[in-house]
Every structure is written in structure tokens, then in C-alpha cells.
Amino acid sequence: MQRSLEQSYSIKFCVKLNKTSSETIGLLKEAYGDQSLSSAQVKRWHKSFKEDREDVEDEQRSGRPSTTQTDEDVNRVREFLNIDRRASLREISEELNLTYYNVREIVTGKLEMRKVCAKLVPNVLTDEQKQLRVEKSRELLESDEQDNALDNCITGNETWCSEYDPEGKRESAEWHTSQSPRPKKERMSKSKVKTMLIIFFDSRGIVHKEFVPPGSTVNAAFYKEVLLRLKNHVARVRPDLVKNWTLHHDNAPSSCSRA
Q: So what's the pLDDT on residue 236?
């Protein structure tokens, strides 16, 4: 209690010196270390003093933090997390007037929740795009069961290519004796110039590839022209494959398959 009161005076003093809340937090951590108030508490005090508050003692609360876990407490924590999924256990404890231990037990034990980082994916598909992929996949599987159609299937993808790739530390390794000086090399940053490469391949390897011209918009109309060039290219190399081809293109990645 005495330590919290000291820090309240310190926060009030920092406000008088026009220190920001971030600067105040840093000063308190430097002075009190692990016993300093939490960032949320410092910000709350800092805001109160900025609004001309004079009293440095905590206001009387309805009661001390609960040391038992009731169904009401579980529901309060659940409702709080439904509003703010990123809140820390300490913030929940302070806002709901519960002990840190109880909050941790409710979140991890009663609610069986854990913090999960978001998974990064290239694109978030719509329900229509997902359904279209399911239908095309089923068509390909049925065709493959009949006449091994997947052996004649060509698929494609896009990737960003840098103008150059800096040589890595392991790639620059050389054989030297213990008496030889260690070689040095200048650190190189990654290339800021990138271009998109569209590549098509089948079960035997690469069939066709081309770079997207700078300033071009990759949409359905652009992909239709790419697929036509792919068809013309394969017609010269594998004319037996092209005669029954149909071109499919939409907002999802395009494909080319036999009818």
C-alpha cells in the first residue's frame, strides 16, 4: 500500500513536469523495477491527474478482490473477453476487481482458453471461391479415376522474384587454414525491385513461364491472355493435349484442364 502511494505521488509529480504517460511508465520502472505499477494503472493515474485530480489515494471500493471462483465471476470474465480478446490477465484482474490468480484459473481452467497468434495466409477466400475449388477438385478426381487425367493436367501459380538475392553467410563460406585471416564481405540488403513470375507445370516439370510487365493489373482478362499464350505454346510441343482443352478463369487463380 505504501509503495503504491509513493508511486501515485511520483505520477502526480511527472504530470506537473508535463511528462507523457509513456515517459512516466519508463521512469517508474527504472525507479521501482518489478514492484512498479502496471502500465494500465499508471495510465489511469496519469489521466486522472491530467484532469486536475489532487487526491493520491485510491478511492474506496465496494470490496476486496474476490479470492473464490463463482459462476458469476466466470461469466464476467467470459463477457469481458468477448469484448476484448487481446486483454492481458492483469488488465482483466484490474477491471473486474479479481485476483490475478483467479483470472488465470478462470481463463485457462474454466473457459479452457489460450492466447493464439493469427495465422498468416496468402489470401482469405470467399465462400463462393472455396465451393468452386471443391467442385473443381472433385471433377479432377473423377476424371483421374477414369482416364488418369491428372497426368495431363497443367497447373500454375505466381511468385514474386527479386532483381537479385543477396548471398547468404553460409553460401560465402570458404576453406581456410587456422592461420588464414577470416574473410570479410559487405552486407547487402534485399532487392527492392520485384517482378511477378507466372509459371505453369505438369507432372513432368515446367511447361510455360512468363514475367508480368511492370504496371500490369493481374485480373481475369489478363489471365485469359496468359492462358491463350500457354495453349499456343503447348500446341507446338504437345498438340495431342490441346485439342480437348477448355480455359477456366475467374477472380481465383486460373486453371487450364482437359474437357
A: 81
**How many whole angstroms separate alpha carbon 212 and alpha carbon 197?**
6
Q: Give a yes or no: residue 200 inside a domain.
A: yes
Lowest mean pLDDT among 166-170, 178-182, 213-217: 166-170
In the block, cell 511508465 appears at 25
The confidence band for 218, taking pLDDT boundaries of 50, 70 and 90, is confident
Task: For 126, list phi and psi in degrees, rounded to 5.
Answer: -80, 170
Tens-place pLDDT, residues 161-174: 887 777 776 777 77
| DSSP β-bridge partners for residue 156 | 200
Provide the H-helix boundaries in the chain: 2-16, 21-32, 39-50, 71-83, 89-96, 100-105, 127-147, 220-237, 239-242
Between CA 211 and CA 214, with CA 212 as vertex, the angle to 5 degrees is 120
The residues, ordered by sequence, that sit 6+ positions from 100 with a Cβ below 8 Å of its Cβ are 89, 90, 93
Number of domains in the chain: 2
Query: Are both 76 and 159 inside the same structural domain?
Result: no
Say if 117 falls within a structural domain: no
User: What pTM was estimated for this model as a whole?
Assistant: 0.35
CA distances from 82 to 53, 71, 78, 183, 188 (A): 32, 16, 6, 57, 46
Q: Looking at the structure, tell me whether residues 134 and 197 fall in a common domain.
A: yes
Residue 218 lies in a domain: yes
User: Residue 109: how many CA atoms within 13 Å on its side-chain side?
Assistant: 8
Strands 194-202 and 205-211: antiparallel
